[in-house]
Amino acid sequence: MSEVYNAWRAINGAGDHPANGDWGITGALEIRLTEADPDAYGGLAGGDRPNPRAISNVVSHQTEETETHEGFSDMLWSWGQFVDPDLDITGESEDAAPIAVLTGDPDFDPLGTGEATIGFHLSNHTDIGGERAHPNAITSYLDASMVYGSSEDQHATIRGDGGKMLIDEDGFFPKDSAGQYMGGDVRSGENVGLTSFHAAFAREHTRIVDELAERDPSLSDEALYTLARRVVKTEIQKITYDEFLPKILGEGALGDYGGFDADVNPTVSVEFSTAAFRFGHTLLSPTIQRLAENGGDAADALELREASLIQWCLLKLALIQFFAA
Hints:
Myeloperoxidase, subunit C, 8 strands, 7% strand, 325 residues
């Protein structure tokens, strides 16, 4: 029975596509929907183009707070940030490419030295015929890899016994040697909202395992784990397609599912990973609104800049209360 369940989905996505088993797997090179710009090779965008920081200052200039006309909460962008690590991550190379800052930039050069730069490294890449190709460090599938990992090594660090995830008595993943919470993705400890989702679905996995074991005590460790993983993956897909995307794209924008198309390569594209899905950064709020256990507003909103989990000791109590039974 374990062999049957284990064959369902490989952690690295291998074999998920019935005809092209290496499409969308961990480490697959991101596909291109447009031709690469030869002028950008070896540089950021070509020497005759506007300074990227200057573009950012113009495009991102905001003088007042905005809100969606539907009144969506911070859960919207938090879910987007949670799903993104399920689809793509491009590692950083050793090639430094610092971004020049215009003299007098209010944030990076307030004293007008004209010497400030923004630290930046080119993404990890492979040179193929004079053109950069970027490997996706995780699976391109919406398969809950941010919960379970995209490699066997990472997967092994968070898997427990009895079909369950390796979580502590408070319901959180263990910490690594640097004191950061481990999860299926290296970014799971970036902020409170992200870690909340990781904790929630690790606990959901445990709940499902307990329910399955009660229904059928003969199920093996492998069977319990794989079946629960399958349910969690389905839940994440359901939320994404039925709740998240309609709020982003509009009701009915996706249309009805037309069935599996074997000709579609599911590997994430360069355009999606570097540009299209980056729109989510525009959704962030300066503060994270919180609710008390009784459903009322918490006394204080959490400043986004203070939501980093590096100082986890300051935030753990709030998260424990948030997930209290």
